[in-house]
Amino acid sequence: MTLFEPELGTPAAPSGPLVRVRAKVAYDGTGYAGFAPQPRQKTVGGTLAGALEKALHHPVELTCAGRTDAGVHAWGQVVSFDAAADGFDPKRLQRSVNKMLAPSIAVRSLEAAAPGFDARFSAVSRRYRYTVLDAAVADPFLASTAWWVDKPLDLRAMRLACDPLLGEHDFASFCRVPKDKPDASLVRRVLDARWEVDEHDDGQLLRFWIEANAFCHQMVRSIVGTLVEVGLGKTRAGELTSILRAGDRAAAGKVAPPHGLCLWEVTY
Amino acid sequence: MTLFEPELGTPAAPSGPLVRVRAKVAYDGTGYAGFAPQPRQKTVGGTLAGALEKALHHPVELTCAGRTDAGVHAWGQVVSFDAAADGFDPKRLQRSVNKMLAPSIAVRSLEAAAPGFDARFSAVSRRYRYTVLDAAVADPFLASTAWWVDKPLDLRAMRLACDPLLGEHDFASFCRVPKDKPDASLVRRVLDARWEVDEHDDGQLLRFWIEANAFCHQMVRSIVGTLVEVGLGKTRAGELTSILRAGDRAAAGKVAPPHGLCLWEVTY
Q1: Residue B7: what pLDDT?
Q2: What is the 3-class SS of A178-196, one letter each residue?
Q3: What is the ipTM metric for this complex?
Q4: What is the predicted pLDDT for the residue at A14?
Q5: B200 touches chain A (CB under 8 A)
Q6: What is this structure's pTM?
Q7: How far is A104 from chain B (nearest CA, A)?
């Protein structure tokens, strides 16, 4: 018996027992209007749910660990959803959706999870990576994954400026307040924030790693934008503390472009 | 005085003294019909020459170190051409063409060379890199730069199979004979051929490095295709010597796809 009724346009919900599924997903966010499904837009979540529905023959409601913005990438996004338990075959489902989603989206793992598992609310922390190419000339192979800054950056100052971010703070200076929840708390706990350097023939490839219990909207990109201004000498490293205390969006630097950002890992 | 005559469609050749120019170029070959300019095709050479002509206001005849095929990339392609010596400013020319060529092509360096310098005939050796992702799941960020092989490869056998390639041989088994020169020599001297392994979360990222005085058409991709068959256990490592001696295109394995290949460096 198939639960999919093509004549009706929308497949019927599974009527039998369900299994909660957990999947780890990588995607190149170029050309997608972000993760969150939106009508008449090509989104990562919409595309992923569509492939799962085709393979499962029933509707799928996705929950994700971090709703990435348009152009933002993921290496270790985590999603959860319910599937009909009858005939559930995780390996076959993964193979089948990966064929539909290639090459921009890849389900890296997929398995049955505990019944209460929720990709968003069960998450303990999220880790993001932001890549900056600091070089006189752009790199065609990093065009869609690194922010190219053609002036020399003072890495020592950028590293000093990371320290005030650690710990629990109100990140109002670095966050866009959600319109539908103007009173939502912007307090977040940053567990790690540091710059690593990778070799690059024509300059230096800077990787900003930041881990927090959760992030508010545009938080990583606002922080990176401010840290790069420190690297350019426009803002002093010591000013980070006062920018953070100001609790004012105007105090921080510009928002770094989305394509350098990647949701790297989620911890449960 | 400008030498460019837009009314006539084609700019006039420079009439004054010339300077021989040498440039190092990186490009993402995705979407290009190879390097060599061809009528009504988007080629790397045609695009690059077009940008140089716009900036220099005179026609440009490009010579390159290695004519890469459709879909093949370069990190250190070298080109040479003549420019009008009057007002020649290498830094400004590089900046100006890079603005026109971004993001898929980048001129990494550009400078005046000795008058007799020729990107093709002055080259002593070429070094290519071929990337294979050996993993159960594809990687969206390597979709256009690595050949994804979803079965486990025996790296030890692939390394053993490299040894017979070293030195001077007739590479007829690994080369497409040029139609216009059916009697051309296919003897080449391989200076280095080895596999390196980079870390990858979901498998192993294999880099095949090969350096030779010169390469005949499809030589690297035919060698990689054969080495991967060795890695899959379809061909024994010891067979490489007899494949090489056969002097017959049919003796070797399939040609590896173009997108894993990158012209890495040219030595003069």
Answers
A1: 47
A2: CCCCCCCCCEEEEEEEEEE
A3: 0.93
A4: 85
A5: no
A6: 0.93
A7: 5
